[in-house]
Amino acid sequence: MTIVPICPAPVMQHETVQMAHGAGGRLSQTLMQRVFMPHLHNAFLDLLDDQAKLDLPPGRTAFSTDTYVVSPVFFPGGNIGELAVNGTVNDLAVGGAKPLYLSAGFVLEEGFSLAELEDIVKSMAEAARRAGVMIVTGDTKVVGKGQCDRIFINTSGIGIIREGVNLSCRNLKVSDSIILSGTVGDHGMAIMTSREGLSFQSRITSDCAALNGMISTILDEVPFAIHAMRDPTRGGVAATLNELASSSSVGIEIHETTIPVKPDVRGACELLGIDPLHVANEGKLVVAVAAGDAERVLEVMRALDLGRDAVIIGSVVDDHPGMVVMRTVYGSRRIIDLPLGEQLPRIC
Amino acid sequence: MTIVPICPAPVMQHETVQMAHGAGGRLSQTLMQRVFMPHLHNAFLDLLDDQAKLDLPPGRTAFSTDTYVVSPVFFPGGNIGELAVNGTVNDLAVGGAKPLYLSAGFVLEEGFSLAELEDIVKSMAEAARRAGVMIVTGDTKVVGKGQCDRIFINTSGIGIIREGVNLSCRNLKVSDSIILSGTVGDHGMAIMTSREGLSFQSRITSDCAALNGMISTILDEVPFAIHAMRDPTRGGVAATLNELASSSSVGIEIHETTIPVKPDVRGACELLGIDPLHVANEGKLVVAVAAGDAERVLEVMRALDLGRDAVIIGSVVDDHPGMVVMRTVYGSRRIIDLPLGEQLPRIC
Questions:
Q1: A165 near B CB under 8 A
Q2: CB nearest A2 (choices: B139, B158, B246)
Q3: What backbone torsions phi and psi does residue A301 show, to the nearest 5 degrees?
Q4: Residue A104, SS3?
Q5: Closest partner CB to A139 (pick from B67, B144, B168)
Q6: What is the pTM of this model?
Q7: Are strands B226-230 and B286-289 parallel, antiparallel or unpaired?
Q8: Which pLDDT score is estimated for B193?
């Protein structure tokens, strides 16, 4: 379908999503023309074929997907659109891939504000530009009022894995150092404290950011040193470390005193009885690296904005395989378990 | 994360989705182990990394996405899972690609039946097997009761485009024949008549099917003859023809007498005042082909189960560019417009 190249009427504050916007008819075209294309248009998307046709560079292809259902849709430090782009970019990058192309699938609730939708789409465009990726194919569905909560966004992504790089959560070796790129819990507590009925008067903001730049620099500067990377999102650093330990059948020991937590985040966590290690992050990186290379990786990370607070939080041990143990501030040892379930629903 | 290779407890009828199933903790693991992995497991998915690492064969890559929100979730002739696999397979195939890999992103409503979820996942596995694709990466989110309508599924897909094949809705040439692979309106009317409060006692079933086999055979047998293909889903054949006409800046003329419609579907459409050309299909193909090759293509299609009722419904004309005109049974001419909006919400 060709989008007629006229200057579209701007979206009015009071306009809302109608069922017909998702029906594949004339109003679907209007939605594309007025809300999506002004911000997202590019050589692939402009064709509006059912599929984007891409010439991928050589190399193994990484493929990842995530649906974002965060509530509230706008939160301190970001919104669902920015999160949807950065989240999938990060899922590709932690596999050693250079993220290239994203898809975007929207589910919109009838009555959702078109002005808010446009703000979200604009954020996606900006986040994609910052991360150096293109949104090349998409889909929009509209469901009736009360059949979804405002807006859900799926992004799937394609990236090309660096030659010779082999990152996997199965690669941890005993004595590896575990590096964390910065403070924990910012995203989850930003969401939590911005929910209705929970007002902390805090200035906690989400750490939502694309990690592919930092990861690329690490892989440039210290090639082949990294064994595994993960972004500790749902379930927090605790879940990530448990996954690494379990997948590689090794133990991990971390030191509580080394874990960076912002004072506001720590305060909110204490008030709510939540362990910051279980809280989601959206711009942090956990790196497992051979001990001998750890200082060099740390140096590279600390030179970057996103890795300024990077720190070695522990190491891989041959004790208690599959288990994560923390040396507490009191010198005792505590098992850091996978959380059973939900402390903070819909944080991403 | 490693899925422990034990025989998981079967899902009980009364068990339902809990918020904790989407939290990335222990219950998320249980959901993977008990519901998803028994049906979907393969060498890529088993790794449970944040991304699948694929060795794609040479060629241009097609990339497509669609979120499925069909209601009811189970309908005559299929369910949302089967639809989600076939729909994205078809979006890749109509671009001339061999579909290879899919992602699957689930949004589940708290309280949704785990037994029904398992039925859906099983259907996805079967549909993927039939279409010759693998589901290699996935994601599950759970939202609270009333925050989505039971289950939404996004599938994104990757395929490799055949060497030398260049299908695009911009490629139509004057005098091309337009072929339709079978009866129209089956899927949309199956959904419509199965909705609560609308009982037709009909036996209308969805035509939900993967088209990649048929498309591959056409491209094998009549290489380079096809200018464009589309699967007429949302908005029906009317929307598809309008997109083709508009994108290629040509006119299309079709003949009402040639359009195959099943008697039950025609009856239901007449009762509801709906034009079958505007009703969604999920296993039909519209092909634009040079007139000289049309009979050969038709022959190839008719030899296949899915193309048994294939027929030439019209041709590309140099009159009325961007517009679709139908010669009616009475010999008069009628403009087949893009529907404004929604006749049948949530049909896919």
A1: no
A2: B246
A3: -65, -40
A4: strand
A5: B67
A6: 0.96
A7: antiparallel
A8: 86
Strand ranges for B188-322 from DSSP E: 226-230, 251-255, 286-289, 311-317
pLDDT over threshold 90, residue A24:
no
DSSP result, B83-116:
HHHHHHHHHHHTTTEEEEEEEEEEEEETT-BHHH
Which residues, 6+ apart, have CB-to-CB distance to B96 below 8 Å? B62, B161, B162, B165, B166, B167, B215, B219, B226, B229
Interface of B with A in 260-289 (CB under 8 A): none
From CA B53, how far away is CA B66, in angstroms rounded?
A: 22
Q: How many CB atoms lie within 10 A of CB B155?
A: 31
Which has more pLDDT, B200 or A324? A324
Residue A188, chain B, CB below 8 Å: the answer is: no
Burial of B262 (0-12, 13-18, 19+ CB in 10 A): buried
Give the domains, in start order, of chain A with CATH numbers.
19-161 (3.30.1330.10), 177-335 (3.90.650.10)
Going by their DSSP bridges, the two strands A134-143 and A97-109 should be labelled as parallel
Listing DSSP states for B132-193 in one string gives T-EEEEEEEEEE-TTSBSSEEEEEEEEEEEPTT----TT---TT-EEEE-S-SSHHHHHHHH
Q: Is the pLDDT of residue A341 over 90?
A: no
Q: How far apart are CA B196 and CA A179, in angstroms?
A: 55
A230 closest CA partner among A44, A125, A95: A95
Contact partners, residue B270, CB within 8 Å, separation at least 6:
none
Q: How far is A61 from chain B (nearest CA, A)?
A: 5
ipTM, two decimals, is 0.95
Chain mean position to CA B229:
13
Whole-Å CA distances, B25 to A171, A202, B31, B113: 22, 27, 10, 20
Nearest to A64 among B61, B137, B142 (CB): B137
Instruction: State the Cα–Cα distance between residues A345 and B262, nearest whole angstrom.
Output: 47
pLDDT digits (tens, 9 = 90+) for A86-142: 999 999 999 999 999 999 999 999 999 999 999 999 999 999 999 999 999 999 999
How far apart are the C-alpha atoms of A132 and A210, rounded to whole Å?
10
Q: Which residue of B has its CA nearest to A160?
A: B53
B158 strand-pairing partners: B63, B101
| CA B126 – CA B128 distance, rounded (Å) | 5
pLDDT at A14: 82
Q: What does the block give as tokens for A217?
A: 């620099």
Contact A136, A101 (CB under 8 A): yes
CB A210, CB A86: distance < 8 Å: yes
- Name the CA dihedral angle for B319, B325, B326, B328, rounded to a multiple of 10 degrees: -90
d(CA B317, CA B207): 30
Predicted confidence at residue A12, as pLDDT, reads 77
Beta strands in B162-310 (DSSP E): 177-180, 226-230, 251-255, 286-289
Chain B residues with beta carbon closer than 8 angstroms to that of A230: 50
Q: Do B148 and A146 touch (CB under 8 A)?
A: no
Close Cβ partners of B51 (under 8 Å, ≥ 6 residues apart)? A62, A63, A64, A91, A92, A94, A95, A97, A159, B137
How near does any CA of chain B get to the CA of A340, in Å? 5
